[in-house]
Amino acid sequence: MKASINWLREIVPGLDDDPREIAQRLSMIAAAVEDFDRVGEGLEHIVVGRVLGRRDHPNADRLSLCVVDTGADDPIDVVCGAPVIVEGAAYPYVPVGTTLPAGFTIEARKIRGEMSHGMLCSEMELGLGRDKGGIMRLADDIDPGTRLIDALGLPDVRIGLDLNPNRVDLACHLGIARELADGPLVERDFGTSWTPAWADGSEEASGAGVTVRIEAPDRCSRYLAAVVRGVEIGPSPAWLTGRLLAAGSRPINNVVDATNYVLLERNQPLHAFDLARLAGPEIRVRAAGGGEVLETLDGETRTLGPADTVIADRDRAVALAGVMGGADSEVSGETVDLLIECAAFDPLSVRRTARDVGLATDASYRFERGIDVHAQGDALRRCVELILAVAGGTAEDVAIRVGPEPAAPTDLPLRASRVRQVLGIAPDDEAIARLLEPVGFARTGDLGEDGAVFYSIPGWRGDITREIDLVEEVARRHGYDRFPDEDRRFRSSAVPEHPGFDRAERARVLLAGRGLFEARSLSFMPEEHRGMQARVPVPNPLSAEESYLRSAMVPVLLRRVEHNFARGRRDIRLFEIGTVFDLVDPGASSNGDATADRSAALAPYAESSRLGLVITGRRAPDHWGDEGADLDTWDLKGLAEEVAGSLCDATLEPLGADADPVAAQLGGAWLDRRGFRIVQDGVTVGVAGAVVDAVVDSPPWAASLWALELELAAVRRREPAVYRPLSSYPAVRRDLAITVPLAVEAAEVESIVGDTASDLLESVRLFDVYEGEGVGDGRRSLGWAFRFRADDRTLTDDEVEAEMSAISAVLEERFDARIRSS
Amino acid sequence: MTDGAAALLERLAQLEASGLAAIERADNSEALEAARVTYLGRNGELADAMSAIGSVEPDQKPVVGQRANAVKKSLTRAFESGVASLASTSSSDVDAGVDLTLPGRRAWRGGVHPVTRVIDEICGIFGDMGFTRVEGREIETTWYNFTALNISLDHPAADMMDTFYLDDDVILRTHTSPMQARVMESYQPPVRVLVPGLAYRRDSFDPSHAPAFEQIEGLAVDEGVDFIEFRSSIEHFVRRFFGPATKSRFRPSFYPFTEPSAEVDVTCSVCAGSGCSTCKRTGWITIMGAGMVDPAVFEAVGYDPERYTGYAFGMGPGRIAMVRHGIPDMRLLYEGDVGFLEQFS
Description:
The structure holds two protein chains of two kinds. By secondary structure, chain A is of the alpha+beta class. In chain A, about 25% of the residues lie in helices and about 25% in strands.
């Protein structure tokens, strides 16, 4: 909503001199002021010029030579490029030496051989409006030489308000003025020359030679119409033009300007039809027929359906009800007689119609949010008075009013105790009334239970229907920033913290510490990408790329890797914690529990939290002292072991040849089969391994990719560790190198060692793996480091030797191991 | 004591004194080595003196022998400490060409996302005020997302949230607010919860919108929670999160599930309130929508609206991170670009 500060000043005399103060106040009590523009600044030297004569430029088709009376002693020659220039009409004249808002200075110069002393200009060139179609025609009766800003009532300040959806009443100057005034607004008399007799009807009424019928009462509750005959269409008087420009509205002609003025003044959308264009003449408010066609004012031809509401004459649609007029019946230069529509359309049907045709207009905005049905008669009278004043003519004595008389808004009770309970401040009934009465709420004198005081609700506040709505008004009128800042007692929460946050935090700390960056991706993916499938479709997606919800983290992270590849990055280590989605068998739908029933519709959709990570590139930043190397399987496995062992209580197992449906579901097409599953309590909770080439668009310089996906629920809460006594006796180290057949796995060896040795074995560690010369075909060498220690004594050589012999013997027997050295 | 023994003891004492002096004088390794050879060498003075012990009377031998050993120990210790002190003062490292200005060996740097940091800080501050964190579903029913929150799908307010529908009754939640209703259905007051999570709106992905974005919902319900407590609690948060110099203001607003409703602005951190492009020249940045819980929400979840009052708020940590770090385009938050992420680690 754009508003003119001058206009507000006219309604509320005595406003602050500083427009910024007014804007600030509105922001704090009513609606945020987002734009603040000075209108007419820098136009002090522009005057009104009258074109005394016009002829074609001898050397240019599109130019005219004008003789302009600028109020000086002698007329001036001006070359002008406007398509239409009317002799005798007034236009803004820019004298030589003046600089326009756009920054260029007008000079006397020859244009195609003819001297031009100054310029006639458009709204756009003056910075007053958006219309650049032609030069700005002013009312004919302004004296040449009058300063333009004086004629238009400028300078002014235009403010733009961001209205809350419940405050449509602020979409007009009267509404804004109410918030700024100290007391109830005393409306100035706008003239009483027209006091019609009303022809009433519940569905149909006739008068002034016109019949109006509401055929769709669910879409239009009330339709008022007046007839004005003998108007003369032309430019509006300068004050009206200036007002509309200052309020951001485009001047059209005197009649349309009058309807727009009343709209901006008091929120009632009005429409002027050319009466001669209405067959009948009659007005029918009805549903559009299937396939019915209407050309709207904007020149678009629109095909309508029964859900759309139209204003029709006897034969055809002439306007889109509450949205936009039709081109056929619009007011034009030839119009003589008018029918003025002042209707109340149903918010939902206007919303539907506006959505169907893709239009949002000043009228539809207001109808969708609800107009003041009690002020329609005043709005129509105001509009007719204004048309008579600016366009002449006479109004018919009879006006039409169809539809039931609107019921008065229900009075509402307000308890001072409720104000205190919700707000914490404790104004008494008198103080509350002093806050509410200036904006139209009035005590009715009735008292209710608990000392409630009844207030009448003004027609423009359709949003106020409950006591709490009045409490908000009290808070707002009191001023949110005038509430005291008070520390209150600490309150605890009965709701326990969800363990997922701790899990995510532990994962973040570990992985950020290991050199990975946390990513946050959008949760969408295509149905299928390089063999990776998603399962939950989004029926109204933004694009095919985002037409499914992700079913796993790694496929989405791989897209992020591709993004980094595209920017030439080779070292990429990303992790993300997020939600993945799946479709499941909904099972039984209802068990009669209301809370469960409300969620029953969710049964087919499964969600779970996951951790995904992807790594590629060098193992460490290049250092001058090292040979750099890329990450390999053992880096991935080490990271996966840390995830499994320190975040969870899980172990890694090679995927092997067995089909593991859970692993397949966690991994999918990206996972190389030589990878690992992460197993906790016998259940597969994650997978890790190499990313197969086919799923990623990698440049030739990229290194291998490794990834991991884990159910976040598998992350365990970190239990306090239990202290183990530290032995004060020394440990004994023994190394053992053995050769074993290639088929023997290191983990088997380690496991048997653990089973064989006594408690004296503190740790066993593989420190060397070797295949090749000196080991024998089909065999490899494994070097193990053992540490033995006792809690209560220093171990003797004999004790350690006994352990080592036992271990060697078992290895020789079980694995055909040969001892190389010990 | 015989003369022979006495003479030998005297000789050992002189030898010790002159030996220690020679070692002390040695200011380089060559001189030190020469002193060692002279006194401690195989044919050195000490060896010579010790060979004379054999000619001493047998009963005197232990005394003289002990003395000789003591001198040997003393000279050896002096020599070793001479070696050590020469090493510590020598410039042999520089001589060997070690340039200590060379770069050190580092591990890869990682880090959490800037939006995560904002979420954690916000949750930390409200956590200190007794709030606990809860998690909600991202796929929700229209009942929890709209109806329970007093939102009519026909009201223009629903226009603010263009919705992804999965089927007629199921949507991607348009805000984290559905958890208000779910928490209150399951727990009786006092309720103080935060709901950090993703919300979805059918907005095209552009510099200031994302179809999926982080939100933090807050809800505090109990007896006696009033507008003053609401306002003071939010003020407390603003001071801690944005710093004591930051000013805030509460403006009237509208949400179907709060009344009175407010928007909370803080002074723009970029221009300190003087007006810039970040704050659209207003000097203020809106950080939260909030208000007192509407009684209609209490009725929907079965709380007595005459007994309980409370406040609720919603924040966008993504937008706050953008303001905090001067990030001009929201899409940067969700691209996973390593060059972007490493700036915040």
